[in-house]
């Protein structure tokens, strides 16, 4: 009977904590703005920005020093490609450079004077003299268009090249065909930048906004003194575990809905490649959300108000894509960056999600990242419990002496109900 009552009492306390957390979120306009703005608005706008997915009609300048029918035909083939559009025919290289420096073009196609004879001999005939590599996608599109136009020109005029070939090699050449290189893009059939980047960014958005919400609530609790609410039932590890689990349950319920919107609905709306098994994605999101919540609650040690988390988390979130190994191979990073990969839940979570969602990986293929997330859950859960206990004790030390409980009773003293308690501005009390 005692055990039953104890369990019922514990569940009642947890339910009270959960209700309190939902109420805190629902009544805070700043937190709602972060959640709605960060999840819905940011998610929609970011996907919309990469909606074209591929570079089309990149402006280029052509310097045609040949001036032959063949060079003009090449220019027409170049302009007909979907990747580039000829912005201008420059008379010389200095004029074309000025166009690039003023951002009117992203590349320069230089056609040499001996273009026609070079094509006939099968030699390199077109030089991409300059390309704006500050935007490497533009550079790649110009390169691709220049090569494609040259291949088309070669296929059209290959029979005419025999006049430049020695008689001994004429028969052999007649029996051969030009080499066709066929590439098969894996996991990204559109070869679009958005298809590659957006799945990783969606996980970072989940991590970033969840960290902000946790940080704002924790900072507000410390600033106003409302964190003392959690001292009424004691400060033992079990009591703090109940607080941490209650908060985590609240955040996970909300972010399960947000995750469905970001990684379930948005890929359908914007036609982002999505070949992952739904069950595996859900299995991955469980430790990811738990680890993120525990990590955020551990970070409450550094949040003394509700504003600082936004600046701090925004600053540190910039490099999460880098740490995940998506923008740069993890194997090529220095050891300290590889170590940082295992500190932040967003890093293994992002890498694992991209593998499952975009590459069709199974749970066995992401075993390393999956185990890492569960280890993070265990470590950060223990640290979160200790962090919240420390925050409550620190708040108790700021209580005026007249309102302070006797030593040894701080774990059960209902300070938040004491009419003499006023958070802030009071002297520190040594314990």
Q: Which descriptor suits the 3D outline?
A: elongated
Task: Please tell me the overall pLDDT.
Answer: 77
Biggest sheet record: 4 strands, mixed
Radius of gyration: 31 Å
Question: In terms of structural class, how would the helical and strand content be classed?
Answer: mainly alpha
Question: How many individual domains?
Answer: 2
First-to-last CA distance: 37 Å
Helix % is: 55-70%
Poorly predicted sequence stretches spanning 5 or more consecutive residues: 169-177, 401-431
Number of strands: 4
What is the spatial order of strands in the main beta sheet? 2-1-3-4
Give the helices and strands as they follow along the chain. Answer: HHEHEHEHEHHHHHHHHHH
Tell me the β content: 5-15%
Helix tally equals 15
Notable characteristics:
single chain, 431 residues, mainly alpha, abc type-2 transporter like fold, 2 domains, four-stranded mixed sheet, 15 helices, elongated, disordered C terminus
């Amino acid at each position: 009977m005692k055990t039953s009552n104890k369990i019922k009492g514990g569940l009642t306390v947890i339910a009270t904590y959960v209700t309190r957390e939902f109420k805190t979120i629902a009544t805070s306009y700043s937190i709602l703005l972060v959640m709605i703005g960060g999840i819905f608005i940011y998610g929609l706008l970011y996907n919309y920005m990469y909606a074209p997915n591929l570079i089309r009609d990149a402006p280029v300048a052509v310097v045609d020093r040949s001036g032959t029918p063949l060079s003009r035909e090449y220019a027409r083939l170049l302009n007909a490609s979907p990747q580039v559009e000829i912005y201008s025919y420059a008379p010389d290289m200095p004029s074309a450079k000025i166009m690039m420096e003023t951002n009117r073009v992203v590349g320069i196609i230089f056609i040499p004077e001996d273009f026609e004879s070079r094509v006939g001999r099968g030699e390199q005939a077109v030089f991409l003299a300059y390309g704006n590599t500050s935007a490497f996608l533009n550079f790649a599109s110009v390169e691709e268009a220049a090569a494609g136009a040259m291949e088309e020109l070669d296929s059209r005029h290959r029979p005419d090249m025999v006049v430049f070939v020695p008689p001994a090699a004429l028969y052999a050449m007649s029996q051969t065909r030009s080499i066709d290189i066929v590439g098969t893009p894996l996991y990204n059939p559109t070869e679009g930048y958005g298809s590659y980047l957006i799945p990783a960014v969606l996980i970072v958005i989940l991590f970033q906004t969840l960290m902000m919400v946790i940080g704002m609530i924790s900072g507000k609790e410390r600033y106003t003194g409302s964190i003392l609410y959690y001292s009424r039932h004691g400060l033992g590890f079990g009591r703090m575990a109940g607080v941490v689990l209650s908060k985590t349950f609240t955040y996970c319920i909300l972010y399960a809905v947000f995750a469905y919107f970001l990684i379930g609905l948005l890929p359908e709306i914007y036609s982002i490649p999505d070949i992952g098994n739904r069950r595996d994605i859900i299995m991955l999101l469980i430790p990811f959300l738990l680890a993120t919540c525990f990590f955020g609650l551990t970070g409450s040690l550094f949040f003394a108000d509700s504003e600082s988390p936004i600046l701090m988390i925004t600053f540190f979130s910039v490099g999460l894509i880098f740490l995940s190994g998506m923008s740069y191979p993890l194997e090529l990073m220095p050891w300290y960056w590889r170590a940082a990969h295992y500190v932040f839940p967003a890093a293994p979570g992002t890498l694992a999600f991209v593998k499952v969602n975009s590459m069709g990986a199974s749970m066995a293929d992401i075993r390393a990242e999956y185990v890492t997330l569960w280890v993070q859950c265990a470590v950060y859960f223990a640290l979160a419990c200790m962090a919240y206990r420390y925050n409550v004790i620190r708040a108790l030390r700021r209580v005026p002496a007249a309102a302070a409980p006797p030593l040894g009773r701080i774990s059960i003293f209902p300070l938040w109900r004491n009419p003499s308690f006023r958070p802030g501005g009071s002297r520190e009390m040594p314990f």
